[in-house]
Predict the structure of Ras- protein Rab-24.
Amino acid sequence: MQEKTYLKVVLLGKVNSGKTCLVTRYITRSFSEETPSTIGAAFCRKDIYIQGRNLSLAIWDTAGAERYQAMSAMYYRSARAAILCYDITDNISFDKVKFWVDQLKAAEPDCRIYLCGTKLDLIEEAVQPREVQTKTVVNYCRDIGGDVFETSSKRGYNVDKVFEKIAEDFMKSSSIVTTGSKGDVRLEHKSTEKKSCC
């Protein structure tokens, strides 16, 4: 049986920034307008097969409310990827992303950052005006060494691409190591820090 590798992914962002809808669409292929706000954090797992390896994404969806902010460090500890969600119709949500970038860079420098603009359907359907300009986010991502996506959880647009890119980047930054008398194979991250599970 092929060994499974685990990758811890954390979602951070302001309340109502679309984190839970993004994960729900990815895991269950469904969408609800009435998705309740996360309390504390929610956990889910998605097993995928990529580049000839079994990879299990351990996904932590953190609460966006200010009162839970202090708890978030507990959930992003040892994460190798962070999806920072912002609502493209809400400038304040993008300001919050910058806060989380600073927190992650200080606490988890090996954590790769992915900025995810949500609710693209509201713009395309002219329900609400765009407040966060794509060029602004792209320039910011260039400065922090991150990636940027604009998504619609309602339509499913670009949702899979976010997680596929995360998985691909992780595999590229890992090396295959053969161990044991039976030639068991595992992946080892190139970071010099200690690895820990989710």
Notes: Residues 91-107 form the longest helix (17 residues).
